[in-house]
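[User] Could I get a sequence and structure tokens?

[Assistant]
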Amino acid sequence: MSKTEPRVALVTGASSGIGLVTAKALRRDGYRVFGTSRKPMSDTPDGITMLICDVTDDASVQAVVDDVLSRTGQIDLLVNNAGIGLLGGAEESSAAQAKAVFDVNVFGVLRMTNAVLPAMRRQQKGRIINLSSILGLIPAPYNALYASTKHAIEGYSESLDHEVRTQGIRVVLVEPGATRTSFEENLTRPDQPLPVYETIRAYAETQMREVIEKGDAPEVVAAAVVRAANAASPKRRYTAGKAAAQVRFMRRFLPESFVDKNLRKFSRLPD
């Protein structure tokens, strides 16, 4: 994307954490930035226009995209960041709870993407950046449903990129590792917890909190998004942070048995 052209970015889940820091980084990079949140928020002092959007609602998604287009006439960049977590044994969640997580993390991305594609096609240019995770690359005990949504985003994004590339549109993945945000404070808990998982679930929650405390700053992820947004010939995937790069290397090049053993050791699961 040319630095001389006016560029418009729409960032979902921009009320805090990675979304807010990413929106600010794009604003500094010269984008006119619109961020979304589920509840009303004032525009930020540094020029980010905040709009209400519920990514689980078709009408809400279309309304926010129409609003941005009515103000600017274009959307050059969509950053699909909105998402929720769920920690617990896979068996501990009802189908309804699993559907709710997928509705935000997967179908929310699909709704936003489908809403912006017609405008990007008319422009004959556009970029969509989907926030995945290193948990989209590896198994994640006690994060099975969350990891499943990220595995889905990986396959969806890479496939869609092939479909729209000839229309001047690229779809790119950014894969953060543990990031210092309030993510763990907003985790969904299982709606049908079982005693058999209680002890290890508690450990998994403590472990997640410790890992996040030692994780990358959200600015690391935001920098990866800006690189992905501005690259003339973008890569399909951008890892964000040293730990994410190590996990990606491990998954791609090391034997599956080695990965399995170390994952179980990390999760305090017996061989």
Observations:
- The chain has a mean pLDDT of 92.
- The first strand starts at residue 8 and ends at 11.
- The chain has one domain: 8-241.
